[in-house]
Amino acid sequence: MAMALNDLLLQKKSDILDRWRDLVFASYVPETARFLRSQKDRFANPIAYQLNRGLTGIFEVFLEEADAEQIMGHLDEVIKLKAIQETSPSRAMAFLFLLKTIIREELAPQANDPAFAAEFTELESRLDGLALLGFDVFMQRRERLHEVRVGEIKRKVGALLRRLGMGDEFFEEPSGEERDSR
Predict the structure, then answer these.
(1) Taking all residues of the chain, what is their mean pLDDT, rounded to a whole number?
(2) Where does the pLDDT of residue 2 fall: very low under 50, low under 70, confident under 90, or very high at 90 and above?
(3) How many Å apart are CA 159 and CA 130, to the nearest integer?
(4) CA dist 64 → 39, 58, 70, 106, 168 (Å)
(5) Least CB-packed of 121, 137, 146, 169 within 10 Å?
(6) d(Cα 76, Cα 53) in Å, to the nearest integer?
(7) What is the per-residue burial (b if ≥16 Cβ within 10 Å, else e) of 153-176?
(8) pLDDT at 165
(9) Measured between alpha carbons, how far is residue 32 from residues 35, 37, 122, 143 in Å?
(10) How far is residue 126's CA from residue 120's CA, in Å, rounded to a whole number?
(11) Model's pTM, two decimal places?
């Protein structure tokens, strides 16, 4: 991205982050949103702290055009909360599209200027890429949560079966021949 739009985004960084944070907080039920906005202590309000840290990190590495690994680390900061909250993938990723809307609004004068057309195309493409990375992170988080849940169910069922004296044969690993015949 050429320096002109990047410089404008850097100048507006604080306003963009404030608006983005407010919109993300507003996506929660009203009581939770009020708490997230009002409680400033990081230990009394770890969710707001984590969301703020994640949103700030995402925006900063986005502006730096960092590699996918760095971006994914900051995305994970926000998305791990969304994945735990049992929300749909589209709803969990909505916060990234909020950023896209905010940036469009903040750069509205430049959006209509033909001199910035190529930069806007690249910027929008990068924002779309950010959303795609977000979906990857969300799915990785969901897979880990399901693995933990399946492991917990197996432990509970195994304990119950062992109490009944029949657990070991259900949890033995199949031998090489048995695996190959499946």
Answers:
(1) 86
(2) very low
(3) 44
(4) 30, 10, 10, 18, 54
(5) 169
(6) 11
(7) eeeeeeeeeeeeeeeeeeeeeeee
(8) 78
(9) 5, 9, 36, 27
(10) 10
(11) 0.76
